[in-house]
């Protein structure tokens, strides 16, 4: 695999990547099965039975308040907070089963060795985000973590990714995002970042159609040099090495 050039110069004429911004759920941790189970259990506890198809809304990068209002109506703020706490209590009982996405821990540590800043841009709460990266032993590797409490508009609004770039002092044109949801891809690209999709939810084609530059199944063996920008193409799913990408046809 090609080696990353020394920091300070472009990669094959493209701007050097100085920061990488990660979504959390489905990108850093494989949490979707636990989230779906927790939401289904919580909604059932308040008398709202939902199908697996309806629950797919949860995987689209939505905030907790958006999910609650989608299934329970236009709730007042105090009920949003109370119901959110109840759902989180159910989720915490399942957290011990959640593992990191394969290869992501090594990839984040490699970024630090290369002098590339790492940040998080997530719709999750601050408490859960901090607890997650501490449990994985990664807290020291992130310069900042932008969570639902830091923004007034969730994904697909670009605010969360713009704020992450501002906090680390790197322009969006020199930052790379990883996200697994169409709303997250829209958020990152609207903020001016290149964005790579992570196909933890099986939405490779949707991520490409939304604007992902390519889609990877995980981070195993991944290097920054392997993520040079692709030309703008017709969308084509490439199953080689288990990933999808865009190519000229």
Molecular structure report:
- By secondary structure, the protein is an alpha/beta fold.
- Helices cover 36% and strands 14% of the residues.
- The chain is built from 9 helices and 8 strands.
- The chain has an 8-stranded mixed β-sheet, sandwiched between helices.
- Strand 2, helix 6 and strand 3 form a beta-alpha-beta unit.
- Helix 1 crosses helix 4 and helix 3 packs across helix 4.
- The chain is globular and about 50 Å long.
- It starts with 18 loop residues before the first strand and ends with a strand.
- 42% of the residues are buried.
- The N terminus is likely disordered.
Describe, in short, the structure shown.
The chain is of the alpha/beta class.
For this entry, give a set of tags.
249 residues; eight-stranded mixed β-sheet; 8 strands; disordered N terminus; 9 helices; globular; alpha/beta
């Amino acid at each position: 695999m090609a080696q990353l050039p020394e920091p300070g110069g472009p990669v094959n004429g493209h701007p050097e990547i100085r920061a990488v911004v990660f979504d959390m759920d489905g990108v850093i941790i494989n949490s979707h099965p636990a989230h779906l189970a927790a939401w289904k259990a919580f909604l059932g506890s308040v008398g709202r039975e939902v199908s697996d198809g309806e629950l797919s809304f949860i995987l689209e990068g939505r905030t907790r308040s958006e999910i609650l209002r989608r299934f329970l109506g236009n709730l007042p703020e105090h009920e949003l907070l109370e119901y959110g706490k109840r759902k989180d209590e159910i989720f915490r009982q399942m957290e011990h089963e959640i593992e990191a996405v394969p290869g992501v821990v090594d990839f984040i540590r490699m970024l630090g060795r290369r002098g590339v800043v790492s940040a998080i841009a997530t719709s999750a709460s601050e408490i859960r985000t901090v607890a997650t990266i501490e449990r994985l032993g990664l807290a020291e590797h992130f310069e900042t973590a932008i969570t639902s409490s830091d923004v007034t508009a969730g994904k697909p609004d670009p605010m969360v990714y713009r704020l992450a770039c501002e906090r680390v002092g790197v322009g969006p044109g020199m930052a790379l995002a990883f996200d697994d949801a169409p709303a997250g891809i829209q958020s990152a690209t609207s903020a001016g970042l290149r964005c790579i999709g992570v196909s933890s939810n099986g939405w490779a084609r949707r991520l490409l159609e939304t604007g992902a530059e390519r889609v990877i199944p995980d981070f195993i063996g991944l290097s920054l040099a392997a993520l040079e920008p692709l030309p703008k193409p017709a969308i084509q799913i490439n199953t080689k090495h288990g990933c999808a990408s865009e190519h000229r046809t």
